[in-house]
Protein backbone atom coordinates (compact mmCIF):
# COMPACT_ATOMS: atom_id res chain seq x y z
CA UNK A 1 0.00 0.00 0.00
CA UNK A 2 1.96 2.99 1.19
CA UNK A 3 5.58 2.29 0.21
CA UNK A 4 6.72 4.49 3.09
CA UNK A 5 4.81 2.30 5.43
CA UNK A 6 2.54 4.26 7.66
CA UNK A 7 -0.17 6.67 8.49
CA UNK A 8 2.40 8.40 10.66
CA UNK A 9 5.39 9.98 8.94
CA UNK A 10 8.24 12.31 9.84
CA UNK A 11 7.79 15.99 9.03
CA UNK A 12 9.65 19.17 9.93
CA UNK A 13 8.67 21.14 13.02
CA UNK A 14 9.04 24.91 12.51
CA UNK A 15 9.94 27.23 15.38
CA UNK A 16 6.43 28.70 15.13
CA UNK A 17 4.95 25.26 15.83
CA UNK A 18 3.71 24.48 12.31
CA UNK A 19 4.62 21.17 10.70
CA UNK A 20 5.82 20.84 7.11
CA UNK A 21 6.28 17.91 4.73
CA UNK A 22 9.18 19.54 2.84
CA UNK A 23 12.21 21.52 4.02
CA UNK A 24 12.59 24.22 1.37
CA UNK A 25 14.51 27.44 0.88
CA UNK A 26 12.20 30.01 -0.69
CA UNK A 27 13.59 32.76 -2.94
CA UNK A 28 11.24 35.76 -3.23
CA UNK A 29 11.60 38.49 -5.85
CA UNK A 30 9.93 41.81 -5.11
CA UNK A 31 9.56 43.12 -8.68
CA UNK A 32 9.63 41.65 -12.20
CA UNK A 33 13.09 43.21 -12.70
CA UNK A 34 14.50 40.82 -10.07
CA UNK A 35 12.70 37.75 -11.40
CA UNK A 36 15.49 36.55 -13.71
CA UNK A 37 18.10 36.68 -10.96
CA UNK A 38 15.75 34.93 -8.49
CA UNK A 39 15.15 32.05 -10.90
CA UNK A 40 18.85 31.82 -11.77
CA UNK A 41 19.67 31.52 -8.05
CA UNK A 42 17.25 28.58 -7.74
CA UNK A 43 18.36 26.94 -11.00
CA UNK A 44 19.67 23.43 -10.39
CA UNK A 45 18.79 23.50 -6.66
CA UNK A 46 15.94 21.07 -6.17
CA UNK A 47 14.99 22.25 -2.67
CA UNK A 48 14.96 25.94 -3.66
CA UNK A 49 11.65 27.31 -4.95
CA UNK A 50 10.81 30.77 -6.31
CA UNK A 51 7.83 33.06 -5.77
CA UNK A 52 7.48 36.83 -6.08
CA UNK A 53 5.47 39.77 -7.29
CA UNK A 54 5.96 41.44 -10.66
CA UNK A 55 4.61 44.92 -9.87
CA UNK A 56 6.81 47.90 -8.96
CA UNK A 57 3.98 49.56 -7.02
CA UNK A 58 3.18 47.48 -3.98
CA UNK A 59 -0.11 45.81 -3.22
CA UNK A 60 -1.28 44.77 0.25
CA UNK A 61 -2.92 41.61 -1.07
CA UNK A 62 0.27 40.49 -2.82
CA UNK A 63 2.39 41.25 0.25
CA UNK A 64 0.04 39.23 2.49
CA UNK A 65 0.25 36.32 0.05
CA UNK A 66 4.07 36.42 -0.14
CA UNK A 67 4.37 36.63 3.65
CA UNK A 68 2.00 33.66 4.01
CA UNK A 69 4.26 31.66 1.68
CA UNK A 70 7.43 32.85 3.46
CA UNK A 71 5.96 31.42 6.70
CA UNK A 72 4.49 28.30 5.08
CA UNK A 73 5.13 25.09 7.02
CA UNK A 74 7.02 23.54 4.07
CA UNK A 75 9.43 26.51 4.02
CA UNK A 76 12.48 26.43 6.29
CA UNK A 77 14.33 29.57 5.16
CA UNK A 78 13.87 32.62 2.96
CA UNK A 79 16.00 34.75 0.64
CA UNK A 80 14.28 37.89 -0.63
CA UNK A 81 15.79 39.64 -3.65
CA UNK A 82 14.86 43.07 -4.96
CA UNK A 83 16.17 45.27 -7.72
CA UNK A 84 16.35 48.36 -5.53
CA UNK A 85 13.77 50.77 -7.03
CA UNK A 86 10.50 49.04 -6.18
CA UNK A 87 8.00 49.71 -3.39
CA UNK A 88 7.94 46.16 -1.98
CA UNK A 89 10.85 45.85 0.44
CA UNK A 90 12.79 42.56 0.48
CA UNK A 91 14.26 43.45 3.88
CA UNK A 92 10.79 43.69 5.43
CA UNK A 93 9.86 40.26 4.03
CA UNK A 94 13.04 38.78 5.54
CA UNK A 95 12.22 40.43 8.90
CA UNK A 96 8.79 38.80 9.00
CA UNK A 97 10.27 35.40 8.11
CA UNK A 98 12.90 35.81 10.86
CA UNK A 99 10.21 36.78 13.37
CA UNK A 100 8.59 33.39 12.63
CA UNK A 101 11.88 31.70 13.59
CA UNK A 102 13.00 31.02 10.01
CA UNK A 103 16.51 32.05 8.96
CA UNK A 104 16.14 34.75 6.29
CA UNK A 105 18.33 37.09 4.24
CA UNK A 106 17.72 39.78 1.66
CA UNK A 107 19.61 42.00 -0.77
CA UNK A 108 19.15 44.48 -3.61
CA UNK A 109 20.63 43.60 -7.01
CA UNK A 110 21.67 47.22 -7.63
CA UNK A 111 23.84 47.06 -4.51
CA UNK A 112 25.24 43.57 -5.22
CA UNK A 113 26.63 44.61 -8.60
CA UNK A 114 24.47 43.16 -11.38
CA UNK A 115 23.19 39.89 -12.79
CA UNK A 116 26.07 37.46 -12.37
CA UNK A 117 27.36 38.87 -9.08
CA UNK A 118 23.80 38.77 -7.68
CA UNK A 119 23.32 35.18 -8.81
CA UNK A 120 26.64 34.19 -7.21
CA UNK A 121 25.75 36.04 -4.00
CA UNK A 122 22.27 34.48 -3.96
CA UNK A 123 23.62 30.95 -4.47
CA UNK A 124 26.06 31.46 -1.61
CA UNK A 125 23.26 32.65 0.70
CA UNK A 126 21.00 29.77 -0.34
CA UNK A 127 23.81 27.31 0.46
CA UNK A 128 24.29 28.68 3.95
CA UNK A 129 20.52 28.82 4.59
CA UNK A 130 20.20 25.22 3.46
CA UNK A 131 23.03 24.12 5.75
CA UNK A 132 21.37 25.87 8.67
CA UNK A 133 17.92 24.38 8.16
CA UNK A 134 19.37 20.93 7.64
CA UNK A 135 21.53 21.17 10.75
CA UNK A 136 18.82 22.73 12.89
CA UNK A 137 15.95 20.63 11.51
CA UNK A 138 13.62 19.20 14.12
CA UNK A 139 11.85 16.11 12.80
CA UNK A 140 8.40 15.44 14.17
CA UNK A 141 5.83 12.69 13.66
CA UNK A 142 2.85 13.83 11.58
CA UNK A 143 -0.59 12.37 10.96
CA UNK A 144 -3.59 13.45 8.91
CA UNK A 145 -4.57 15.75 11.80
CA UNK A 146 -1.46 17.84 11.01
CA UNK A 147 -2.30 18.18 7.33
CA UNK A 148 -4.06 20.96 5.48
CA UNK A 149 -4.97 19.83 1.97
CA UNK A 150 -6.28 22.14 -0.73
CA UNK A 151 -8.22 21.15 -3.82
CA UNK A 152 -8.47 22.93 -7.14
CA UNK A 153 -9.95 21.77 -10.40
CA UNK A 154 -8.85 22.92 -13.83
CA UNK A 155 -9.23 21.72 -17.39
CA UNK A 156 -12.50 20.19 -16.19
CA UNK A 157 -14.62 18.03 -18.45
CA UNK A 158 -17.74 15.92 -18.00
CA UNK A 159 -15.77 13.32 -16.01
CA UNK A 160 -14.45 15.77 -13.39
CA UNK A 161 -17.77 16.15 -11.60
CA UNK A 162 -18.54 12.42 -11.72
CA UNK A 163 -15.16 10.86 -10.87
CA UNK A 164 -12.19 13.14 -10.04
CA UNK A 165 -13.97 15.61 -7.79
CA UNK A 166 -16.16 13.06 -5.95
CA UNK A 167 -13.04 11.00 -5.09
CA UNK A 168 -11.41 14.12 -3.64
CA UNK A 169 -14.65 14.89 -1.79
CA UNK A 170 -14.57 11.46 -0.18
CA UNK A 171 -10.91 11.97 0.77
CA UNK A 172 -11.81 15.37 2.28
CA UNK A 173 -14.51 13.67 4.36
CA UNK A 174 -11.89 11.27 5.75
CA UNK A 175 -9.37 14.05 6.34
CA UNK A 176 -11.88 16.06 8.35
CA UNK A 177 -12.95 12.96 10.32
CA UNK A 178 -9.27 12.45 11.20
CA UNK A 179 -8.99 15.98 12.58
CA UNK A 180 -7.31 17.52 9.55
CA UNK A 181 -8.11 20.63 7.55
CA UNK A 182 -9.51 20.79 4.01
CA UNK A 183 -9.71 23.94 1.88
CA UNK A 184 -11.57 24.30 -1.39
CA UNK A 185 -11.99 27.49 -3.38
CA UNK A 186 -13.43 28.71 -6.68
CA UNK A 187 -16.64 30.27 -5.34
CA UNK A 188 -17.14 31.42 -8.92
CA UNK A 189 -17.65 27.71 -9.62
CA UNK A 190 -20.50 27.48 -7.14
CA UNK A 191 -22.59 29.87 -9.19
CA UNK A 192 -26.15 28.61 -9.40
CA UNK A 193 -25.82 26.50 -6.24
CA UNK A 194 -26.47 29.00 -3.44
CA UNK A 195 -29.11 26.87 -1.62
CA UNK A 196 -26.86 23.77 -1.73
CA UNK A 197 -23.91 25.79 -0.43
CA UNK A 198 -25.87 27.32 2.47
CA UNK A 199 -27.27 23.91 3.48
CA UNK A 200 -23.71 22.85 4.25
CA UNK A 201 -23.00 25.68 6.72
CA UNK A 202 -21.69 24.40 10.06
CA UNK A 203 -23.30 27.29 11.99
CA UNK A 204 -25.55 30.31 11.64
CA UNK A 205 -22.42 32.50 11.42
CA UNK A 206 -20.96 30.31 8.70
CA UNK A 207 -24.23 30.57 6.78
CA UNK A 208 -24.03 34.36 6.82
CA UNK A 209 -20.44 34.51 5.53
CA UNK A 210 -21.10 31.82 2.91
CA UNK A 211 -24.12 33.75 1.63
CA UNK A 212 -22.18 36.99 1.43
CA UNK A 213 -19.21 35.35 -0.33
CA UNK A 214 -21.60 33.71 -2.81
CA UNK A 215 -23.47 36.95 -3.54
CA UNK A 216 -20.18 38.79 -4.08
CA UNK A 217 -18.98 36.11 -6.53
CA UNK A 218 -22.19 36.13 -8.56
CA UNK A 219 -22.22 39.94 -8.73
CA UNK A 220 -18.55 39.83 -9.74
CA UNK A 221 -19.16 37.41 -12.63
CA UNK A 222 -21.99 39.58 -13.93
CA UNK A 223 -19.87 42.73 -13.56
CA UNK A 224 -16.86 41.38 -15.48
CA UNK A 225 -19.13 39.51 -17.92
CA UNK A 226 -17.08 36.38 -17.47
CA UNK A 227 -18.19 33.21 -15.75
CA UNK A 228 -15.59 30.66 -14.72
CA UNK A 229 -15.77 28.28 -17.66
CA UNK A 230 -13.13 27.90 -20.36
CA UNK A 231 -13.23 26.82 -24.01
CA UNK A 232 -11.75 23.47 -22.94
CA UNK A 233 -14.56 22.93 -20.43
CA UNK A 234 -17.12 23.36 -23.22
CA UNK A 235 -15.15 21.15 -25.61
CA UNK A 236 -15.11 18.54 -22.83
CA UNK A 237 -18.90 18.45 -22.68
CA UNK A 238 -19.77 21.01 -20.01
CA UNK A 239 -22.50 23.27 -21.37
CA UNK A 240 -23.31 25.76 -18.59
CA UNK A 241 -21.66 27.27 -15.51
CA UNK A 242 -24.39 25.67 -13.39
CA UNK A 243 -23.37 22.24 -14.69
CA UNK A 244 -19.69 22.95 -14.10
CA UNK A 245 -20.53 24.24 -10.62
CA UNK A 246 -22.26 21.00 -9.63
CA UNK A 247 -19.16 19.08 -10.67
CA UNK A 248 -16.77 21.49 -8.98
CA UNK A 249 -18.72 21.59 -5.72
CA UNK A 250 -18.43 17.77 -5.36
CA UNK A 251 -14.81 18.17 -4.37
CA UNK A 252 -15.91 19.63 -1.04
CA UNK A 253 -17.30 16.25 0.05
CA UNK A 254 -20.15 16.18 2.55
CA UNK A 255 -18.76 17.66 5.79
CA UNK A 256 -20.17 20.90 7.21
CA UNK A 257 -18.40 24.04 6.00
CA UNK A 258 -16.86 25.87 8.97
CA UNK A 259 -16.70 29.25 7.30
CA UNK A 260 -14.91 31.40 4.73
CA UNK A 261 -11.23 32.34 4.73
CA UNK A 262 -9.59 34.88 2.45
CA UNK A 263 -6.36 34.43 0.51
CA UNK A 264 -3.28 34.27 2.78
CA UNK A 265 -5.45 33.51 5.81
CA UNK A 266 -5.09 30.22 7.70
CA UNK A 267 -8.24 28.39 8.78
CA UNK A 268 -8.77 29.28 12.47
CA UNK A 269 -9.49 25.64 13.38
CA UNK A 270 -9.54 22.26 11.59
CA UNK A 271 -12.43 21.12 9.41
CA UNK A 272 -13.64 22.02 5.93
CA UNK A 273 -13.23 25.65 4.81
CA UNK A 274 -14.14 27.63 1.74
CA UNK A 275 -11.52 30.10 0.48
CA UNK A 276 -12.75 33.35 -1.06
CA UNK A 277 -10.33 34.61 -3.73
CA UNK A 278 -12.76 37.02 -5.37
CA UNK A 279 -11.66 40.69 -5.28
CA UNK A 280 -13.52 43.00 -2.89
CA UNK A 281 -14.87 46.38 -3.99
CA UNK A 282 -12.10 48.96 -4.36
CA UNK A 283 -11.74 52.32 -6.05
CA UNK A 284 -9.43 50.81 -8.69
CA UNK A 285 -11.60 47.73 -9.25
CA UNK A 286 -8.53 45.72 -10.06
CA UNK A 287 -7.91 42.04 -9.74
CA UNK A 288 -9.46 39.04 -11.37
CA UNK A 289 -10.53 35.92 -9.65
CA UNK A 290 -9.13 32.59 -10.80
CA UNK A 291 -7.45 34.01 -13.91
CA UNK A 292 -5.75 30.62 -14.28
CA UNK A 293 -5.22 27.41 -12.31
CA UNK A 294 -1.82 28.43 -10.91
CA UNK A 295 -3.31 31.47 -9.20
CA UNK A 296 -5.93 29.38 -7.41
CA UNK A 297 -3.36 26.78 -6.40
CA UNK A 298 -1.09 29.46 -4.89
CA UNK A 299 -4.10 30.86 -3.01
CA UNK A 300 -4.73 27.45 -1.44
CA UNK A 301 -1.06 27.11 -0.51
CA UNK A 302 -1.17 30.57 1.09
CA UNK A 303 -3.91 29.18 3.36
CA UNK A 304 -1.34 26.70 4.67
CA UNK A 305 -2.04 23.70 2.42
CA UNK A 306 1.02 21.41 2.53
CA UNK A 307 -0.39 19.41 -0.42
CA UNK A 308 -2.80 20.44 -3.19
CA UNK A 309 -4.96 17.98 -5.13
CA UNK A 310 -5.59 19.13 -8.68
CA UNK A 311 -8.45 17.51 -10.58
CA UNK A 312 -8.13 17.84 -14.35
CA UNK A 313 -10.37 15.84 -16.67
CA UNK A 314 -8.75 17.18 -19.84
CA UNK A 315 -5.21 17.02 -18.46
CA UNK A 316 -2.71 19.66 -17.40
CA UNK A 317 1.04 20.05 -17.14
CA UNK A 318 1.47 22.46 -14.26
CA UNK A 319 2.97 22.10 -10.80
CA UNK A 320 3.49 24.49 -7.93
CA UNK A 321 6.25 25.85 -5.71
CA UNK A 322 6.12 25.47 -1.90
CA UNK A 323 3.62 22.57 -1.77
CA UNK A 324 3.49 19.45 -3.97
CA UNK A 325 0.65 19.22 -6.47
CA UNK A 326 -1.00 15.81 -7.02
CA UNK A 327 -2.75 15.56 -10.40
CA UNK A 328 -5.94 13.53 -10.66
CA UNK A 329 -8.01 12.78 -13.75
CA UNK A 330 -11.31 10.98 -14.09
CA UNK A 331 -10.90 10.71 -17.86
CA UNK A 332 -9.37 7.37 -18.91
CA UNK A 333 -8.30 8.78 -22.30
CA UNK A 334 -6.50 11.66 -20.59
CA UNK A 335 -4.77 9.30 -18.16
CA UNK A 336 -3.53 7.11 -21.00
CA UNK A 337 -2.43 10.06 -23.13
CA UNK A 338 -0.78 12.02 -20.32
CA UNK A 339 0.28 9.41 -17.77
CA UNK A 340 3.73 11.03 -17.62
CA UNK A 341 2.07 13.97 -15.85
CA UNK A 342 -0.95 12.41 -14.13
CA UNK A 343 -0.52 11.05 -10.60
CA UNK A 344 -3.90 9.40 -10.19
CA UNK A 345 -6.52 7.77 -12.42
CA UNK A 346 -10.03 8.13 -10.98
CA UNK A 347 -11.74 6.78 -14.12
CA UNK A 348 -12.43 3.27 -12.73
CA UNK A 349 -15.08 4.96 -10.56
CA UNK A 350 -16.99 5.90 -13.71
CA UNK A 351 -16.90 2.51 -15.36
CA UNK A 352 -18.00 0.77 -12.16
CA UNK A 353 -14.62 -0.93 -11.77
CA UNK A 354 -13.96 0.71 -8.40
CA UNK A 355 -16.12 2.14 -5.61
CA UNK A 356 -15.73 5.73 -4.51
CA UNK A 357 -14.43 4.49 -1.15
CA UNK A 358 -11.82 2.25 -2.76
CA UNK A 359 -10.63 5.09 -5.01
CA UNK A 360 -10.47 7.47 -2.04
CA UNK A 361 -8.36 4.91 -0.15
CA UNK A 362 -6.01 4.62 -3.12
CA UNK A 363 -5.72 8.42 -3.25
CA UNK A 364 -5.13 8.57 0.50
CA UNK A 365 -2.23 6.12 0.11
CA UNK A 366 -0.75 8.46 -2.48
CA UNK A 367 -1.20 11.42 -0.11
CA UNK A 368 0.64 9.47 2.63
CA UNK A 369 3.48 8.68 0.23
CA UNK A 370 3.85 12.29 -0.93
CA UNK A 371 3.62 13.55 2.65
CA UNK A 372 6.36 11.05 3.53
CA UNK A 373 8.68 12.51 0.91
CA UNK A 374 7.87 10.77 -2.37
CA UNK A 375 7.84 13.38 -5.14
CA UNK A 376 4.55 13.88 -6.97
CA UNK A 377 4.86 13.75 -10.78
CA UNK A 378 4.84 17.54 -11.35
CA UNK A 379 7.25 17.94 -8.45
CA UNK A 380 9.66 15.36 -9.89
CA UNK A 381 9.50 16.89 -13.38
CA UNK A 382 10.36 20.28 -11.88
CA UNK A 383 7.09 22.10 -12.51
CA UNK A 384 6.97 25.20 -10.27
CA UNK A 385 4.35 27.39 -12.01
CA UNK A 386 3.46 30.45 -10.01
CA UNK A 387 1.13 33.37 -10.66
CA UNK A 388 0.31 36.46 -8.61
CA UNK A 389 -1.29 39.67 -9.81
CA UNK A 390 -2.57 42.93 -8.37
CA UNK A 391 -5.79 42.36 -6.47
CA UNK A 392 -7.67 43.94 -3.60
CA UNK A 393 -9.23 42.01 -0.74
CA UNK A 394 -10.43 43.63 2.46
CA UNK A 395 -8.38 42.64 5.49
CA UNK A 396 -8.54 43.50 9.18
CA UNK A 397 -6.54 46.64 9.91
CA UNK A 398 -6.78 47.98 6.37
CA UNK A 399 -8.70 51.20 6.06
CA UNK A 400 -11.47 50.68 3.53
CA UNK A 401 -10.70 52.29 0.20
CA UNK A 402 -7.06 52.82 1.13
CA UNK A 403 -4.30 52.63 -1.47
CA UNK A 404 -3.72 48.95 -0.80
CA UNK B 1 -23.01 11.89 -19.74
CA UNK B 2 -21.11 9.68 -22.19
CA UNK B 3 -18.40 7.46 -20.67
CA UNK B 4 -16.89 6.91 -24.11
CA UNK B 5 -17.22 8.38 -27.57
CA UNK B 6 -20.46 7.17 -29.19
CA UNK B 7 -21.63 6.87 -32.80
CA UNK B 8 -25.30 7.35 -33.73
CA UNK B 9 -27.31 4.33 -32.57
CA UNK B 10 -27.98 2.53 -29.29
CA UNK B 11 -26.32 3.86 -26.13
CA UNK B 12 -26.55 1.95 -22.83
CA UNK B 13 -27.82 3.94 -19.87
CA UNK B 14 -26.18 3.22 -16.51
CA UNK B 15 -27.94 4.07 -13.27
CA UNK B 16 -31.07 5.35 -14.99
CA UNK B 17 -34.52 4.39 -13.78
CA UNK B 18 -35.90 4.63 -17.35
CA UNK B 19 -35.01 2.59 -20.42
CA UNK B 20 -31.70 0.73 -20.34
CA UNK B 21 -30.72 1.93 -23.80
CA UNK B 22 -31.44 5.03 -25.82
CA UNK B 23 -30.88 5.66 -29.50
CA UNK B 24 -28.30 8.41 -30.02
CA UNK B 25 -29.12 10.75 -32.91
CA UNK B 26 -25.59 12.05 -33.50
CA UNK B 27 -21.98 11.09 -32.75
CA UNK B 28 -21.37 12.29 -29.18
CA UNK B 29 -18.01 12.50 -27.43
CA UNK B 30 -16.93 11.26 -24.00
CA UNK B 31 -17.94 13.73 -21.30
CA UNK B 32 -20.80 15.21 -23.34
CA UNK B 33 -24.51 14.85 -22.60
CA UNK B 34 -27.28 12.95 -24.34
CA UNK B 35 -30.97 13.83 -23.78
CA UNK B 36 -32.82 10.93 -22.14
CA UNK B 37 -36.19 12.62 -22.83
CA UNK B 38 -37.51 15.33 -25.16
CA UNK B 39 -37.36 19.01 -24.12
CA UNK B 40 -39.34 21.96 -25.42
CA UNK B 41 -37.70 25.33 -25.93
CA UNK B 42 -37.40 27.08 -22.56
CA UNK B 43 -37.77 23.90 -20.54
CA UNK B 44 -35.32 23.20 -17.69
CA UNK B 45 -32.38 20.89 -18.44
CA UNK B 46 -31.69 18.72 -15.39
CA UNK B 47 -28.38 17.00 -14.54
CA UNK B 48 -27.24 15.83 -11.08
CA UNK B 49 -30.89 16.43 -10.13
CA UNK B 50 -30.49 20.20 -10.46
CA UNK B 51 -31.37 22.71 -13.15
CA UNK B 52 -28.17 23.38 -15.11
CA UNK B 53 -29.88 25.67 -17.63
CA UNK B 54 -32.70 25.69 -20.17
CA UNK B 55 -33.35 24.43 -23.70
CA UNK B 56 -32.88 27.11 -26.38
CA UNK B 57 -34.33 24.85 -29.11
CA UNK B 58 -36.51 21.74 -29.17
CA UNK B 59 -34.46 18.74 -28.04
CA UNK B 60 -35.46 15.18 -28.99
CA UNK B 61 -34.62 12.13 -26.86
CA UNK B 62 -31.20 10.92 -28.01
CA UNK B 63 -29.98 14.37 -29.05
CA UNK B 64 -26.59 15.75 -28.07
CA UNK B 65 -27.20 18.53 -25.53
CA UNK B 66 -24.70 21.36 -25.69
CA UNK B 67 -24.25 25.05 -26.48
CA UNK B 68 -26.40 24.84 -29.64
CA UNK B 69 -29.55 23.86 -27.76
CA UNK B 70 -28.96 24.61 -24.07
CA UNK B 71 -28.03 27.80 -22.21
CA UNK B 72 -27.11 28.85 -18.69
CA UNK B 73 -29.73 30.84 -16.77
CA UNK B 74 -26.94 33.23 -15.69
CA UNK B 75 -24.00 33.34 -18.11
CA UNK B 76 -24.67 35.29 -21.29
CA UNK B 77 -21.34 34.74 -23.04
CA UNK B 78 -21.07 30.97 -23.29
CA UNK B 79 -23.55 30.51 -26.10
CA UNK B 80 -21.44 32.71 -28.39
CA UNK B 81 -18.61 30.13 -28.17
CA UNK B 82 -17.90 27.77 -31.04
CA UNK B 83 -19.95 24.66 -30.34
CA UNK B 84 -17.37 21.87 -30.65
CA UNK B 85 -14.12 23.57 -29.58
CA UNK B 86 -15.55 26.14 -27.15
CA UNK B 87 -13.31 28.76 -28.78
CA UNK B 88 -14.56 32.35 -28.40
CA UNK B 89 -16.12 33.96 -31.45
CA UNK B 90 -16.62 37.41 -29.87
CA UNK B 91 -13.00 38.46 -29.38
CA UNK B 92 -11.39 40.77 -31.95
CA UNK B 93 -7.83 39.91 -33.10
CA UNK B 94 -6.65 42.75 -35.34
Q: Please state roughly what percent of the residues of chain A sit in beta strands, choosing from under 5%, 5-15%, 15-25%, 25-35%, 35-45% or over 45%.
A: 15-25%
Tell me which protein chains meet in the greatest interface and how many residues each side has.
A-B, 38 and 35 residues
Strand fraction of chain B: 25-35%
Give the SSE order of chain B as H and E letters.
EEEEEEE
Structure commentary:
The complex is a heterodimer of chains A (about 400) and B (about 90). Helices cover about 40% and strands about 15% of the residues of chain A. In chain A, strands 10-11-9-8-12-13-14 form a seven-stranded parallel sheet, sandwiched between helices. A four-stranded parallel sheet of chain A has the order 4-3-5-6, sandwiched between helices. The longest helix of chain A has 21 residues, at about 115-135. Chain A contains 15 helices and 14 strands. In chain A, helix 6 runs parallel beside helix 10. Chain B has strands at about 10, 20-25, 35, 45, 50-55, 65, 70. The radius of gyration of chain B is 14 Å and the shape is globular. The mean pLDDT of chain B is about 90. The chains are: A alpha/beta (about 400), B mainly beta (about 90).
What order do the helices and strands come in, and which of them pair?
The complex is a heterodimer of chains A (about 400) and B (about 90).
Chain A: E1 9-13, E2 19-20, E3 24-29, H1 35-42, E4 48-52, H2 60-70, E5 75-82, H3 90-99, E6 104-108, H4 109-112, H5 115-135, E7 138-142, E8 148-153, H6 160-177, E9 181-184, H7 194-199, H8 204-224, H9 231-235, H10 241-249, E10 257-262, E11 271-276, H11 293-302, E12 307-311, E13 325-329, H12 332-337, E14 344-345, H13 348-351, H14 356-371, H15 377-381
Helix pairs in contact in A: 1-5, 2-3, 6-10, 6-14
Chain B: E1 9-12, E2 21-24, E3 33-34, E4 44-47, E5 50-55, E6 64-65, E7 70-71
Antiparallel strand pairs in B: 1-2, 3-6, 4-5, 5-7
Amino acid sequence: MNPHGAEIWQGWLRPDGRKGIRNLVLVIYTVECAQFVAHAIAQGEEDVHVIGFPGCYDNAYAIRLMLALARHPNVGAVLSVGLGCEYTQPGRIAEVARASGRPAESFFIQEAGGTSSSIAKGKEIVCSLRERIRAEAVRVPMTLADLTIGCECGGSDGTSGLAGNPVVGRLFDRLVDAGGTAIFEEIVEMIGLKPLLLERAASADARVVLASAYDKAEAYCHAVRQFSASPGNFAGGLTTIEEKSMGAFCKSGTQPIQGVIKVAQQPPHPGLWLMDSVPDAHFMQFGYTNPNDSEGIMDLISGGAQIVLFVTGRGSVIGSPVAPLIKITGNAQTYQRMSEDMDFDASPVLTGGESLDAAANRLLDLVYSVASGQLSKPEAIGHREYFLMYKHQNAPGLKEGCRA
Amino acid sequence: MLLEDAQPGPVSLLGSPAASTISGNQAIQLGHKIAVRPHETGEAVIKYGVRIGHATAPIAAGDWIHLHNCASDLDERSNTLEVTTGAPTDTVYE
